[in-house]
Amino acid sequence: MERVVGRKLVLVYDAVSCILLAGLAGAMFTVSATAFAAIFNISAPQLSDIYPSNFQFCVIVIICGLVTTIVAAVGFSFVTLFGDLMSPVLIAGIIYLFVESLRMLGIGEDCHLWCILSEKVYTVSVLCAIEFDHTSPLNFDDVFSY
User: Residue 132: what pLDDT?
Assistant: First the structure.
């Protein structure tokens, strides 16, 4: 690439890529930290906040970033081992959250899954859609067929 565009443009490209990827990594660490903050009952910033809401949340973000960086720096074989160790934990967590979500939504009480998805989950009004009436709610059938 340096032969085609020159050394200066390659340096600019590398700097911009570095800044963008660092911002993306920071956003991913913040999402992970939000999950841990919920586990430890620490308040996380709202979507409208520009800055973190407390020091404890910042510490969780830094720990998430450090763990990810250390695992990646050790090498691919360690990343593979870490992934093999964490996969069962993640699958168990996903199953637990699925069952807990269904319980919170009231599955089995008066309504089956299709009814709950149509009446409680997909209830956002469609604001800008050509095919739909602007006042009709977006239900599960619409999302599934899309």
Answer: 46
